[in-house]
Specification:
binds iron/sulfur cluster; alpha/beta; 6 strands
Length: 507
């Protein structure tokens, strides 16, 4: 048994690099390196006992992602040869750990699907994957501990690592483990690298305008059926639902003529009760004396009075996807904002007013926020959700980041199609100008992955503003989503090459 680590106190807590990887001279050097010790103390590198503990799942995921395996000797537990043509894209959100891997099992044709990594095969049911529709596309279960006769294709990692666990543990704390593997880079990366910054920007802005117009076309179709204001409400609600809850939010907006007829908008509190009740998002448990419980009881009092009227349209709570959602993005909070808008009744007119006014580019977002802001709410300005404790400081129901999502996905497309529909070319050009000048949206996993696949690295100047982000997402929608992770059959690289050769890339 090696001596206790100096920072481990009474508990013998060793890094595997100390305990099991003496062949690595870097690791031996770190034993007398105080900076290396700081990393251990702060948990920058995993600390665990090789003989007593299982490796952390994070290490196993990194092993799969970077394929730190004897790749030419892989076999599933049932004895089939496994070829990993692409490990998939690491999914940091709810759902399987890796999306869209490309694998070949035995002599079968290659399949594209998801990969889940667990310590044990039993994790599949223990974590509820068997009941979760998100896991239907899983084509391989990767586990640490050996298992006999698993019910699905399973790879056991213990026997196929390319290094000892100690070395892999050390590697996980290094830069190399954080660099995305080269396999993430798409086939368009090379032709895109031949473009200068102005050409890249021009390409992304063109794609962004296509995105604006396709969102606008959807709004126009809906407006023909339901009117411009109703089409706007539905787009706003979809954007408020994020990708997890866009559908139930849209459904509630479709119910606006019933839930909030234009001639009799109730007060915001009554509307909150009605929207949350119809959404199936009022908590069943109303016990307690905390302000949140008292508030929920008040909402129930309102909802009980009118529940029979709206019950035929109420949504079941199961339609909401709340797992992994940040409290600030909870649909309860978004519906509270919507209740204020409906109660006030003049949001479409305010948005039109913003469109007609003149602003400097730097003032665009602030001026629109002023029009959409609903001011202080006695409860929601101080609580994230109906179950949250009081916040130390007040938070607005609508902030700049969410406003940007609303502007890009609902407001600017709605204004653009109304201008186009009304044959006002000047107004349409002005809205396009505002769209292209809009400040950047919050970065997210989809954008990071898209940049990695298309550009490998991300010079910030290329991505300044929301429009390059929107253009990047449009390319993903148009091309990446129609090809597999190996980019097979994707025509985008060829189109970029042809564009470079043509006059288009020089204009
Ligand atoms: S699928 Fe096409 S657009 Fe997407 S990364 Fe591959 S080559 Fe590029």
């Amino acid at each position: 048994m090696p001596p206790p680590h100096p920072f481990a106190g009474g508990n013998v807590r060793l890094t595997l690099c100390e305990a099991g990887a003496k062949s690595n001279c870097e690791m031996r050097r770190n034993q007398s390196n105080f900076y290396a010790d700081w990393r251990l103390r702060c948990g920058v590198v995993p600390v665990f006992r090789e003989d007593h503990e299982r490796p952390p799942e994070r290490l196993l995921q990194a092993v799969w992602f970077h394929q730190r395996l004897h790749r030419d000797q892989l076999q599933t537990v049932d004895g089939r040869v496994l070829q990993v043509l692409h490990p998939g894209f690491w999914n940091r959100e709810a759902g399987p750990d890796f999306r869209d891997a490309v694998l070949r099992l035995g002599g079968e044709p290659a399949v594209s699907g998801d990969v889940e990594v667990d310590l044990t095969a039993g994790g599949w049911t223990a974590h509820g994957h068997d009941r979760n529709p998100d896991f239907r596309r899983v084509v391989l279960h990767v586990v640490w501990e050996p298992v006999e006769r698993p019910p699905r294709p399973t790879l056991c990692l213990q026997s196929c690592l390319d290094s000892s666990l100690g070395e892999l543990s050390f590697w996980l704390g290094t830069e190399a483990a954080h660099d995305p593997p080269a396999v993430l880079t798409g086939q368009c990366c090379l032709p895109l690298r031949d473009l200068d910054d102005a050409q890249v920007r021009a390409l992304l802005l063109q794609a962004a305008l296509v995105r604006l117009q396709s969102k606008a076309a959807r709004l126009q179709t809906r407006a023909r059926e339901a009117g411009w204001a109703q089409a706007l409400w539905e787009a706003l609600f979809r954007a408020l639902g994020y990708k997890q809850n866009a559908w139930p939010m849209q459904r509630l907006a479709e119910l606006k003529p019933r839930l909030c007829p234009a001639d009799t908008p109730p007060d915001p509190h009554a509307l909150q009760a009605r929207l949350l009740g119809a959404a199936g998002l009022l908590p069943a448990d109303v016990r307690g004396r905390q302000p949140a419980s008292v508030y929920v009881r008040g909402l129930w009092d309102e909802w009980w009075r009118e529940r029979d009227t709206f019950a035929p349209w109420a949504l079941p709570p199961s339609v909401w996807r709340l797992g992994g959602l940040r409290p600030a993005n909870h649909p309860q909070r978004r519906l509270a904002l919507a209740a204020h808008w409906w109660s006030r009744g003049d949001l479409p007119r305010r948005i039109e007013h913003w469109c007609l006014a003149r602003f400097k580019d730097s003032e665009l977002a602030r001026a629109l926020l002023e029009q959409c802001d609903v001011g202080n709410d006695p409860f929601w300005s101080h609580h994230w959700t109906l179950r949250s404790p009081r916040l130390p400081a007040g938070r607005p129901l609508l902030g700049p980041s969410r406003l940007t999502d609303l502007a890009l996905n609902a407001i600017l497309p709605w204004l653009w199609i109304r201008a186009t529909d009304g044959r006002s070319d000047t107004a349409a050009r002005e809205i396009e100008r505002r769209y292209l000048a809009w400040p950047a949206a919050q970065d997210n996993a989809a954008l990071r992955l898209a940049r990695q696949r298309l550009f490998a690295s991300t010079p910030p100047r290329r991505f300044r503003g929301a429009a390059p982000q929107q253009g990047t997402l449009q390319i993903v929608r148009d091309f990446c989503e129609h090809a597999n992770a190996l980019c097979e059959g994707c025509r985008f690289p060829q189109l970029v090459r042809e564009w470079v050769r043509s006059a288009g890339a020089t204009t």
